[in-house]
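Hey, sorry to bother you again with one of my protein questions. A protein chain has come my way and I'm curious about its shape. It would help a lot if you went through both lines with me. I owe you a coffee for this, so here goes:
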Amino acid sequence: MIYSKLKISVRLMAALVGCFTVQNSFAEQLPHNEIIVRFEPMPAQQKLLSVAKNHKETIADLKIIQVSLMQKLSEAKLKMLSAAAGQPVIDFAPYALGGRVIKFKQDLTKEQMLTVISRIKKFPGVAAVQENSLISLDEIVSLNSEQWELYDKSYYHGGRSEAYKLGTEFFGDDFFDGKSFVNYTGKGVVVAVLDSGYTPHPNFMNHLQANENGKYGYTFIENCVERGSCLSSSKDNFYAAPSPDALDLGDFISFADTYDYKPFKHLSTTSSSWHGTHVTGIIIGQHIDNNSNRGGASDAMVVPVRISGKGVGSGSGRLSDIIAGMLWAGGIHPTISNPHPARVLNMSFSNFTNNYGEGSKCPEEYQKAFDELNLVGVIAVVTAGNNNGGDYKIKSPAICKDFTKNVITVAALTPLGYLASYSNGGNVTIAASGGDSAINGIDGFGVWTTNYNAREQYGKCRDANCFEYGWKNGTSMAAPLVTAAIADMLSANPSLQPEQIRSILIASAKPIPAEKRVPRNGKGGQLSDNVGRLDVIKAVEMAKNYTLPINN
C-alpha cells in the first residue's frame, strides 16, 4: 500500500450514558493506548477528486480511495510507528475514513501520548495529529395525560408530581396544537439513531427499518469486550468486525469486567442504560396503549446504529466506531453498503472539545465526516451537552454547528419553559423539551419514552413486562424531538437540503422570554438572545412551502 500522509488521533473512549457527565479528572485515569492513522490521498487520487463533475461522482471516488487506504499496514510502516511510540504497536482494525486503527501494547500516559503525537507529526507526509477523549450520552432521568413535550401548551392534571400545582401551564414543542397533530409525521423518511442500539420494544418495532437480511441496523464496536460479545478465543486481541444488527446487548459494567479487562479496572459496576431505546421511542413511538408514548415522527423509519457499548459510566464509544457508523448511516461507508441510507442522524452524545487538543473548533475527524455527509444531503442533530450551564462550545460535536452546514445543536428546556439547569447554553441552533433536572416522581417531569427493564445484559428479562416506559431527561431527550421535527419537515418537502432545514428551524422557532433563557433557580448557563424554541407545526408549514434560495 502507498505510504501517504498520516493522520493520527487517539481512538475515542466515550461514555454514552444517560445520567452521567464525564469529567476531565476521571478521563485522566483512562489508558491512552490506541490511535487512528488516517491517510490522505496521493496526488493522482487528489486529481481524481478534483475532476469529479458532481457530488455523486465525488462520493463514488472517495469510496474507491478510502478502500485503498484501509488496507493493512506493511511491517515497514508498523516499525516506523513503533519507533515513534517507543514500543511495539499492533495493526488493529480498518478505519472508515481511509486508514487503520493502531494499538499500543503498553498504555501511555497523556504526556507520553503527546510526545508520540509530536514525533509522528514530523513524519514526511503527516497531515495532522489529534488526541480523542471521552464522549458521554447526554441523558439525565408523557405519557402523562398530555405528553407535555408534544404540545404547544398544556396543563398539569395532577397525580404524577408533587412539584406542580393543578393547572400549572407546561410548554412544549408544538407537534400537537390541542386539536390535531402536525400534518406530516415523517412518512417516507429514514432516520439513523447512533447510540447503544435497540431493544425490540413493541411500541416501535414495526418502524425499525430492516436490512435485506432481516436484521435491524449495524453494529460498529470493534472491541469485543466493549461490545459485550467476546468469546474465549477472542480474548487475546479483542477485535470484533462490524456486523449486521444493532441489538443492544447492554452496556453494564460487572465485577468480572473490572477484574478481567485492564481498561475497566478503575471503574465501578453499573447497570445498562438502554439509552438507544429511549431515544428511538421519542422519535417513532407508536402509542400502542394508554401507557405508551407517541413519537414526534411516528411514520418515519429508524435505522439503529450501535456505536456505544461498555465503558466509562455505563457505556463507551470510540471515534473510529462513531465515524464508521456516521458514514454507514448516510450510505457512504467505503466497504459496507446500507440499502436504506438516512437523511437525518441523531447523535445524543458529546465530548469536551479541549480534549481533542485543537482549541475551539470542530475536531478534524468529525469535520471530514460531516462534510462528506453534507455532499449527500444528510443532516445531523447533536446535543449541547449536560454540564450544568456550560457553553455548547466546550463540547463536540456540538461546536461543529459553527463550522459545518449540516449540524444542529440542541439545548434542553423544562416543562415550565426555562433552560434546564443541567443543559449547556450559548448560541445553540435551537432549544427543545428535555425535562426537569430531577426526575423521581416527586420533583417534576422528564420525557415519557420507551425503556427495557433489565439491569445487565439483554435477554435477562423476557416477558411482556420487560418492555416498559419511563421518565428520561437530558439534552439527549431534547435532540430526538428536533430529529423527529426534521423528519416531519422532510416528509412535507423531501427536496430540502441541510442548510435549508437549519434556516427553517431557526426562522420558525418561538421566542424564549429573557427570564427563561436561564435556569429557574438562576444557577447555570444562559441561552443567547437569538435562540428560539422548537415549533414543529410552523417549521413543517414553512418546509412545505419552501422554494426560495437560502440567504445566510
Remarks:
- The chain has 13 helices and 20 strands.
- The longest helix spans residues 475-492.
- The mean pLDDT is 84.
- Residues 401 and 407 are 5 Å apart (CA to CA).
